[in-house]
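Quick bug: Putative universal stress protein UspA output formatted oddly.
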Amino acid sequence: MRHHILLPTDFSDNSWSAILYALKLYANEPCTFYFLHTWSFKNPTSRTYITSSFIDLNKEEAKKDLVELKDKAKAESINPDHKFKTVYSTEPLLNTIKNTIKEFKINLVIMGTKGATGAKEFIFGSNTVNIINKIRLCPILIIPDAYDFVKPTQIAFPTDFNRFYGDELQPLLELTKLHNSKIQVVHVNVKDNLTQKQSYNLAMLKAYLEDHPSSINWKPSFGTKEQAIIDFIDEFDINILTMINYKHSFIESFLNEPVIQKIGFHTIIPFLVIPEFK
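Here's what came back:
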């Protein structure tokens, strides 16, 4: 199976870190990597004050930078079955990502923590937060700045057991196949406190993961859920954190600005966000 991976870039060191991670994560897989760069006006009225020659110059420079980036990635890749394409657009970033996912049947978006503009308003850049919230067509893997690739032997999946995910877990299972990873399911609470619904969902999850290396872990909460997950990452040497982004989920809560300024675990290891199935 050929993987189609979208790599939004602003040509920064942050986005290059994400590209390097993607190349190493899929080093032994047939892949087509799409380097995406957008250039558009944040305020449409500002276009009035910018000449068409300036716009054309920026367009040509961006296209040239994309070609150079593609060549640089080719030189880093060790797999002859890696293919590279470039996508340039003057449409808004979110629209372009959605259209590119649909057009090229993208399986996964991989990007840096600062998004595609290197924005520094949050620990996650504003573009990254928007993409997590608005792009529900495929999973998104977010790579910390300057993160050195580590073979993902341990992948954490926090859950409250309040719902059964089923095929929503398929991207996680596909990820484990790349490097024979083990799924470490973690529930922040004690086992004896499960409701009947939670117990049922736990049994269903165990059955779903039966043929995959996995274990169920219970993490008593002596503080916040955020801190419990941070501790779990350290304790089990977790290499990738995975969450499913559904309404009222934990991930939705920590993407709010007051929380995102307090949580730091998403800058420690790569973070896979899987969209909810509708």
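Actually, after a second look the formatting is fine. Residues 115-124, 257-266 have pLDDT under 50 and may be disordered. Closing.
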